[in-house]
Amino acid sequence: MNLFEPERTQFDLNFNLFNIAIRVHPFFWLTTIILGSSILQDPDLDPPVRFGYLFVWIAVSFVSILIHEMGHVVVGRYYGADGHIVLAGLFGLAIGSGDVPTRGQRIAVSFAGPGAQFLLIGVVLGGIAVFEPAPVLRMWERVTRLEFPYFYAPDWPEWLNFLMLQLVWINLLWALVNLLPIWPLDGGKISRELFEHFTRANGVRWSLILSLATAGTIAVNGLISWLMKAPLIPLLGVGSGFTVLFFGLFAYGSWQALQQARYGGGGGRHRLEDESYERAPWERDADWWKRG
Questions:
Q1: Number of domains present in the structure of the chain
Q2: pLDDT at residue 289 tops 60
Q3: What is the residue range of 219's domain?
Q4: What residues pair up with 22 in beta bridges, in sequence order?
């Protein structure tokens, strides 16, 4: 077992899907329940219904994050990497999926997670829209706040509308967040590969600076807009305590990595090119921060 994986417990859920080994740590369920706990406080729902909606939220979150990690593993296996999946805490881990030799392959593996979520949205909602376009258009109105013309609106069960809305929100939002150039999210990995390609001497440094600036801006906007109840940057909307904590931790992690990164050698080239020195954890393994 990888030393950075969460310890196995007697409560782990283990199974295989398409010959991919998957392990679900109990903390994954606990974190998902905590994130969806606001459903239990919805005054518009009866108490028994609230628990049903919470179950829908947990199920959609599980499937969505699993699809994301499977995207990494499937593309990694296409290029020869042998990966497996661990769902633990807020994140999933596609362990071993990025062990591919070329920069282009690593970028493809990183993009495959968000790409799989975009594909899931398109397949599910596209399939539904073929038979019942009105509910799909109504749901997109709620997501985009744009009005779409439709000619009929069949009465779907409210729980099904809730499921569709959560499926779109979770997959769309999580995919877009992962594509931000924040280390070590998928977008941060992609930006590091691109920086190292174009500015090999300082690629890691510039990618961390971009990561710090992006995460810090979102965290500051979240804090100020949360206190003012109005968005500081309209595109980012009004933040929350979770937004501040989530992106604040990423900003701190990027700053810490930037401080610890060692530079030197002739011409200011990064010591990653010097095989004689011991690499820092984030240089050896992009997912080190998730595993402990």
A1: 2
A2: no
A3: 180-292
A4: 15, 85
